[in-house]
């Protein structure tokens, strides 16, 4: 999910955070409350700015406008690098605008993007991460923020360094950290305005889409376990979603999501297609913080991906089984 602006400063912050003293239970409860305030700020405040995601040599900047009015949340995210693309959201209704194809994809689902950070309400985070205050205030996009380090208690997940605005509690920067304190990726605001300064920002689409083709992506609830799938859950990861989503015009894919409140693992199951799936494509791929594992199981093709250590995903995918239901 994340990345970097000034590597030496980030690396120092990560090291100091690792050496800090873990807070006591009362302080841990306070830090857990801070995470909830951070998530609420992303959903409830008016803000506009540009943030940059960096993973290795890849950098992608996006412009976000987020406003709250009597109808709820309204948001526009414009991708500034590569092919033009915009996401227009009104509460749980999301429009993906693809101007090069003059297509609008409409879907209804709950989704949180940066500066939201938690998956769901993150109630179990304190069970699997130690929360550490570094005591080293920082500035991001001209605003003061308080670093909060989330140190995993086992090898199944990465750590995170969050810098939370001291005034508004909005997340300004988030980094993913390996067990050796290496910064894997990072996302951070480069400029940001809030409140009345953000209210005048454009939240509607940049293009006139009245003549574009609209495609509605229907998501249907499914239960992969009832279908015969045996999917183990890494310690601390719970099932938070199971849906069937369009894959192509003539096919759908089943999608299961596991999360520990911060990290998410997606498992996609689709019919095996020899024209699209190659047996040589089986196995794992690991790039920066993202791990991917693919394999054929009977008449199905399984893809597992997530921002977790490669060993976590490889072990999970390797133990997934399909047991056809008795007829």
Note down, in words, how this protein is organized:
The chain is α+β, with helices and mostly antiparallel strands. The model is unreliable at 1-26 (pLDDT under 50). Strands 1, 2, 3, 4, 5, 6, 7, 8, 9, 10, 11, 12 and 13 form a 13-stranded mixed beta sheet that branches. It is globular, with a radius of gyration of 21 Å. The longest helix has 20 residues, at 25-44. The chain has 2 domains: 7-199, outer membrane lipoprotein receptor (LolB), chain A, CATH 2.50.20.10; 218-322, MucB/RseB, C-terminal domain (Phosphorylase Kinase, domain 1, 2-Layer Sandwich). 16% of the residues lie in helices and 46% in strands. It is built from 5 helices and 22 strands.
Short description:
Helices cover 16% and strands 46% of the residues.
Please report the first level of CATH classification, the CATH class of the largest domain.
Mainly Beta
Overall geometry comes to globular
Using only C-alpha atoms, the radius of gyration works out to: 21 Å
Count of strand segments: 22
* Main beta sheet strand tally, sense and closure: 13 strands, mixed
| Poorly predicted tracts of residues | 1-26
Number of domains in the coordinates?
A: 2
CATH architecture tag of the largest domain: Clam
Distance between the termini: 43 Å
Query: What is the string of helix and strand elements?
Result: HHEEEEEEHEEEEEEHEEEEEEEEEHE
- CATH-assigned homologous superfamily of the largest domain: Lipoprotein localisation LolA/LolB/LppX
Mean pLDDT: 87
Q: Strand fraction band?
A: over 45%
CATH third-level topology of the largest domain: outer membrane lipoprotein receptor (LolB), chain A
The share of residues in helices is 10-25%
Structural class, by secondary structure, is alpha+beta
Per DSSP, the total helix count is: 5
């Amino acid at each position: 999910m994340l990345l970097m602006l000034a590597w030496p400063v980030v690396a120092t912050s990560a090291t100091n955070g690792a050496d800090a003293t873990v807070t006591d239970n009362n302080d841990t409860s306070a830090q857990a409350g801070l995470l909830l305030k951070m998530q609420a700020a992303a959903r409830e405040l008016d803000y506009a700015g540009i943030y940059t995601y960096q993973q290795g040599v890849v950098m992608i900047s996006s412009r976000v406008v987020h406003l709250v009015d009597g109808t709820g949340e309204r948001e526009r995210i414009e991708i500034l690098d590569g092919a033009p693309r915009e996401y227009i959201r009104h509460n749980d209704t999301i429009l993906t605008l693809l101007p090069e194809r003059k297509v609008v994809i409409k879907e209804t689902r709950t989704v949180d993007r940066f500066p939201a950070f938690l998956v769901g309400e993150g109630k179990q985070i304190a069970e699997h991460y130690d929360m550490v205050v570094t005591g080293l205030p920082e500035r991001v996009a001209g605003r003061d923020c308080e670093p909060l380090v989330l140190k995993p208690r086992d090898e199944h997940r990465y750590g995170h360094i969050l810098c939370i605005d001291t005034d508004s509690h909005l997340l300004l920067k988030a980094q993913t950290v390996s067990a050796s304190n290496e910064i894997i990726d990072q996302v951070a605001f480069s400029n940001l305005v809030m409140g009345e300064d953000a209210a005048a920002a454009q939240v509607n689409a940049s293009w006139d889409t009245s003549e574009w083709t609209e495609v509605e992506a229907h998501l249907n609830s499914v239960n992969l376990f009832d279908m015969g799938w045996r999917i183990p859950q890494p310690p601390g990861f719970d099932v938070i979603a199971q849906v069937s989503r369009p894959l192509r015009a003539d096919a759908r894919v089943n999608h299961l999501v596991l999360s520990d409140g911060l990290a998410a693992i997606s498992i996609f199951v689709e019919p095996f297609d020899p024209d699209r799936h190659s047996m040589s494509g089986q196995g794992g791929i690991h790039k920066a913080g993202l791990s991917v594992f693919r394999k054929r199981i009977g008449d199905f093709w399984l893809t597992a991906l997530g921002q977790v250590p490669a060993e976590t995903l490889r072990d999970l995918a390797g133990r997934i089984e399909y047991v056809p239901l008795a007829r």
